[in-house]
């Protein structure tokens, strides 16, 4: 998957009567088997160079790395993902596993040796927008899939 710089937050100044003297832009880049932390840093430095040349300011832009989680990739038989995939089949849902990102808590958990998956859910539109919504008609089937997965992980015969 190609590297992608995602802006996660923007802040600057703390009073409505002041012109901000700085701006903080939070970004996220998914680290993968082909995009390591050095490649990600180069991508950010390139974006900074473009920004500074396009919008000159009294001071150059600086970068601080706050946190970095290593990439991880689940195999088809890795739990809990395999149990959830089996649960979707049992519920009659056609789901193809895919990469979740830009990053998620799974990266942090995997770094600690804790198996994780991003899971799946209801069909949606307007993700993280003011018009975000889900299709509740699929809720019973999704519940069956997760129920099946949990029973499987607990060793309950199905």
Instruction: Note the total helix count.
Output: 4
Q: What's the CATH topology name of the largest domain? A: DNA polymerase, domain 1
Mean pLDDT: 86
**CATH architectural name of the largest domain:** Orthogonal Bundle
Query: What is the subunit organization of this protein?
Result: single chain
Tell me the count of domains. Answer: 2
What share of the residues lie within helices?
25-40%
Shape: elongated
For the CA atoms, what is the radius of gyration? 21 Å
For the record, what CATH class of the largest domain applies?
Answer: Mainly Alpha
What is the CA–CA distance across the termini? 36 Å
Strand fraction equals 5-15%
- The tally of beta strands, per DSSP, is 4
Strand/helix succession: EEHHHEEH
The unreliable regions are: none
Largest sheet: 2 strands, antiparallel
Label the structural class.
alpha+beta
Task: Characterise the protein shown here.
- It comes from Nocardia terpenica.
- InterPro entries: Bact_exopeptidase_dim_dom, Peptidase_M20_dimer.
- This protein is an alpha+beta fold and 158 residues long.
- It has four helices and four strands; from the N terminus they run ββαααββα.
- It has two domains: 5-54, no CATH class; 81-153, Orthogonal Bundle (DNA polymerase, domain 1), CATH 1.10.150.900.
- The protein has helices at residues 37-54, 81-90, 105-111, 139-153, and strands at 5-11, 24-29, 124-125, 133-134.
- A two-stranded antiparallel sheet has the order 1-2. A two-stranded antiparallel sheet has the order 3-4.
- It is elongated.
- The protein starts with a strand and ends in a 5-residue tail after the last helix.
């Amino acid at each position: 998957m190609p590297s992608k710089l995602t802006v996660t937050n923007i802040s600057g100044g703390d009073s409505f009567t002041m012109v901000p003297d700085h701006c903080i832009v939070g970004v996220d880049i998914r680290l993968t088997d082909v995009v390591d932390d050095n490649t990600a840093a180069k991508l950010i430095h390139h974006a900074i160079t473009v920004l500074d040349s396009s919008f000159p300011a009294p001071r150059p832009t600086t970068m601080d790395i706050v946190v970095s989680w290593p990439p991880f990739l689940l195999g088809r038989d890795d739990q809990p993902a395999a149990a959830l995939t089996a649960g979707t089949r049992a519920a009659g849902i056609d789901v193809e596993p895919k990469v979740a990102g830009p990053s998620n808590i799974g990266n942090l958990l995997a770094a600690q040796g804790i198996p994780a998956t991003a899971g799946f859910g209801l069909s949606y539109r307007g993700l993280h927008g003011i018009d975000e919504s889900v299709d509740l008609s699929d809720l019973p089937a999704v519940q069956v899939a997760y129920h099946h997965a949990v029973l499987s992980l607990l060793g309950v015969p199905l």
